[in-house]
């Protein structure tokens, strides 16, 4: 049923220049698991490893697959300025740009496990949530992204707001809709301490009511994670009544109906 994975990191968490040796296993694994449309979205701080000519060679060698050139644009306080400049310079070569927030008011990512949990100690969780979603709106306003990744990543260590999350997230969803952006349904949350899809059901239902489209994603950091937990995701989407997913080509959104 699910055929696309729009969040993957062939380089992992270091610069590894794209080559056929690095990328072909991703294409092979996609094919093995029935994926037909994948996007490489390494973190923007590793943009030096993104070689568009190697992506084109991979496309030529795997004509049965749609292989999209992408990047994940972060709010990294050290590298984000350079990352944004790179996205601007290479916008026409890119098919798809994710926007994400991994940093709060610290210089370290809050979603590292287990170390990132320390950033939440002794803090008012509602304030943390409001600050996080404010940062989501900031990156959504950049004009340089197509889709928001793991929208409620702030829950990764299990912290929840005191009231309904809708009271905090509605403004952000309205902003995403006004910018004509998508959000991803990410299975990565199922392998994290929170053990829950990103985003949670309440946010998904709100997004559906507002007409916000979805991509499907695993946030794979190795080719073995590509399409991870997709049968479970398909069941969740069916239960929620989601019948369409989006793919992108040169930033143009294409809506695909899911087969049953």
Descriptive account of the structure:
This protein is α/β, with parallel strands linked by helices and 260 residues long. The chain is 32% helix and 16% strand. The strands form two sheets. A seven-stranded parallel β-sheet has the order 1-2-3-4-5-6-7. The chain has a two-stranded antiparallel ribbon with strand order 8-9. The radius of gyration is 17 Å and the shape is globular. The model has no long low-confidence stretch (mean pLDDT 97).
Structure summarized in a few sentences:
It is built from seven helices and nine strands.
Unreliable sequence segments: none
Side-by-side strand order of the widest sheet: 1-2-3-4-5-6-7
Distance between the termini: 6 Å
* Helix/strand/pairing category: alpha/beta
SSE string: EHEHEHEHEHEHEHEE
In percent terms, what proportion of residues is strand?
Answer: 15-25%
Helix proportion: 25-40%
The number of distinct helices, counting runs of at least 4 residues, comes to 7
Shape: globular
Quaternary assembly? single chain
CA gyration radius, whole angstroms: 17 Å
Please count the beta strands (DSSP E, at least 2 residues each).
Answer: 9
- Biggest sheet, in brief? 7 strands, parallel
Q: What is the typical, i.e. mean, pLDDT?
A: 97
List keywords for this structure.
alpha/beta, 260 residues, 16% strand, two-stranded antiparallel sheet
Please outline the helices and strands.
Blueprint: E1 4-5, H1 20-32, E2 37-40, H2 52-61, E3 66-73, H3 80-90, E4 96-99, H4 125-140, E5 147-148, H5 166-178, E6 182-186, H6 201-209, E7 214-217, H7 230-240, E8 244-249, E9 252-257
Parallel strand pairs: 1-2, 2-3, 3-4, 4-5, 5-6, 6-7
Antiparallel strand pairs: 8-9
Helix pairs in contact: 1-2, 4-5, 5-6
């Amino acid at each position: 049923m699910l055929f696309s994975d729009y969040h993957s990191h062939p380089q992992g968490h270091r610069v590894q220049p794209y080559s056929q040796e690095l990328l072909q296993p991703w294409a092979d694994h996609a094919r093995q698991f029935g994926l037909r449309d994948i996007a490489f979205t390494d973190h923007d701080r590793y943009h030096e490893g993104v070689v568009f000519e190697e992506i084109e060679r991979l496309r030529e060698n795997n004509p049965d697959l749609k292989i999209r050139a992408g990047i994940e644009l972060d709010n990294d306080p050290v590298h984000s300025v350079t990352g944004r400049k790179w996205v601007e310079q290479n916008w026409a070569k890119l098919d798809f740009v994710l926007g994400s927030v991994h940093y709060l008011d610290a210089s370290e990512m809050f979603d590292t496990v287990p170390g990132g949990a320390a950033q939440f100690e002794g803090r008012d969780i509602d304030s943390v949530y409001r600050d996080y979603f404010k940062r989501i709106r900031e990156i959504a306003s950049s004009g340089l992204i197509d889709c928001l990744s793991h929208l409620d990543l702030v829950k990764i260590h299990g912290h929840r707001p005191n009231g309904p999350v809708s009271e905090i997230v509605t403004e952000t969803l309205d902003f995403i809709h006004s910018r004509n952006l998508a959000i991803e349904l990410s299975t990565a949350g199922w392998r994290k301490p929170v053990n829950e899809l990103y985003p949670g059901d309440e946010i998904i239902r709100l997004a559906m009511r507002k007409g916000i489209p979805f991509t499907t994603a695993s946030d794979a950091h190795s080719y073995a994670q590509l399409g991870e937990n997709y049968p479970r995701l398909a069941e969740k989407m069916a239960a929620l009544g989601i019948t369409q997913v989006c793919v992108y080509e040169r930033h143009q959104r294409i809506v695909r109906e899911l087969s049953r």
